[in-house]
Amino acid sequence: MHAAPLAVLAALIATPAFAQTPSVELPSRRAGQWEIKTLMEGREGGPEMVAQTCTDAATERQMMQLGMGMAGQVCQRYDIRRVGQEYHIETDCQMGPMRSVSRSVMSGDFQSSYSVRIEGAMTMPGQSQPQATNMVQNARWVGAACTGGLVPGDIQTMGQKVNIRNMPGFGGGTSQPRRP
């Protein structure tokens, strides 16, 4: 897996803490290690991807700040509403030549578990029709201590590890995947 897909994965895995608006504040995840299972729906033979991530309060705050900045730069629409115990997020973002429109629903206590369902469409250069993307993430808190050599900001999946604190905009420069 190359650095660019890992960067996208990092953003997706960070979804619960990725952004907030002044009117609705998204909850921060509990500090420690999380296991996140991601399933892309509608893809034949698409295996469930399992990731381990480690977070702390400082990393969660930085992700929220980064998310707010990114959304403000590339999204014409970024609406977050609280509906009962759920958070509904609607976006319309232009990232270079690629356009992404999505609706997400987040739920859970963010202390022991949470889930995110994303229904979206991406339009890539040269495509006449948007490509539908539906994804479900289910996360569970593993424990307060991060294991397997993980440190806050680390995301490990498919034999690769990246630390989101090293991503551009996070203050660390470029993202370099590393072997666990």
Structural description of this entry:
This protein is α+β, with helices and mostly antiparallel strands. It is 16% helix and 44% strand. It has helices at 3-13, 57-74; strands spanning 32-41, 49-55, 75-83, 86-95, 98-108, 113-123, 131-143, 154-157, 160-163. The protein has a nine-stranded antiparallel β-sheet with strand order 3-4-5-6-7-1-2-8-9, covered by helices on one side. The protein is globular and about 45 Å long. Residues 1-15, 17-22 and 173-180 have low confidence and may be disordered.
Offer a quick outline of the entry.
The chain has 180 residues and is an alpha+beta fold.
> Going across the major beta sheet, what is the strand order?
3-4-5-6-7-1-2-8-9
Tally of individual helices: 2
Percentage of residues in strands: 35-45%
Helix content: 10-25%
Structural class: alpha+beta
Shape type: globular
Strand and helix order: HEEHEEEEEEE
* Beta strands, count: 9
Span from first to last CA?
Answer: 14 Å
Layout of helices and strands, plus pairs?
Blueprint: H1 3-13, E1 32-41, E2 49-55, H2 57-74, E3 75-83, E4 86-95, E5 98-108, E6 113-123, E7 131-143, E8 154-157, E9 160-163
Antiparallel strand pairs: 1-2, 1-7, 2-8, 3-4, 4-5, 5-6, 6-7, 8-9
Key structural traits:
180 residues; alpha+beta; 2 helices; disordered C terminus
